[in-house]
Design brief:
With 240 residues, this protein is mainly alpha-helical. The chain has a domain of 134 residues. Helices cover 74% and strands 0% of the residues. About 3% of the residues have low confidence.
């Protein structure tokens, strides 16, 4: 009986969904909204309405800023969930203090030299991608991934304890919430200045403020994303 009811419920739900899918325009059709008026509007009005020459930045941080606000909150929430699961599973399974990991593998001298040589250049590139994402390819998410990759490869070379010592725990906790916190500050600023949460200035004389907000959000996403990914990596690792 339960199986029959389950199947019937699935059929009832599936029929309107399948009907809706059948009514969608053909994939790639030039008559779909993105091709008829949405994309042309973004390309023509994006820089003057959203504050950035990079249309992708305009869309992600302005036109669909509410979605991105939710995404960075989900990223931080995933950190909390991963840390809770991993730290909870380690209770009762801790090695004696000072006992090295059985899976530790010596790092090649060549790899160590290359990483130490390129690390400053990678950091500079990440900062550039973060600060100039509004006028060139890049942005907060991309710079965060680059910084996190740098932290991870540095950890592999110098060890977790030494890598973690570069960013004290108190500072790391603040950095982990940088993305949602930055969005919140910019959103509330828009609420007080322009009447809506995450509202951007529209007049020509105030577009510098919109650009500044995009840069600030990009920095928050980059720093926060890197801190989240690095913290997840460190939490998943051992104490070696």
């Amino acid at each position: 009986m339960k199986r029959a009811l389950t199947v019937a419920l699935l059929v009832v739900v599936a029929i309107p969904l399948l009907y809706a899918v059948a009514q969608l325009p053909q994939h790639g059709s030039p008559m779909t909204p993105p091709y008829t008026h949405i994309s042309p509007r973004y390309l023509e009005k994006g820089p003057e309405e959203a504050g950035a020459e990079n249309i992708v930045t305009d869309v992600i941080l302005n036109y669909r800023g509410f979605d991105t606000n939710g995404e960075v909150t989900v990223i931080f929430t995933s950190l909390a969930a991963v840390c809770a699961v991993l730290l909870g599973s380690r209770k009762g399974d801790e090695r004696p203090a000072g006992e090295p990991s059985s899976s530790a593998v010596p790092v090649s001298d060549v790899v160590s030299f290359v990483v130490r040589l390129l690390s400053p250049l990678i950091a500079i590139f990440a900062v550039y991608v973060m600060l100039f994402g509004h006028i060139s390819p890049g942005g907060g998410f991309q710079s965060g991934a680059i910084l996190a990759a740098l932290v991870i490869v540095t950890t592999v070379i110098v060890g977790r304890k030494q890598a973690e010592a570069l960013v004290p725990v108190r500072i790391r906790r603040l950095l982990q919430v940088a993305a949602p916190l930055t969005f919140f500050v910019v959103g509330v600023s828009g609420l007080f200045l322009f009447g809506d949460y995450l509202a951007y200035p529209k007049t020509e004389g105030q577009m510098w403020l919109a650009t500044a907000w995009l840069i600030v959000i990009g920095i928050g996403i980059g720093v926060g994303g890197a801190a989240v990914l690095a913290s997840i990596f460190w939490t998943m690792g051992d104490d070696s």
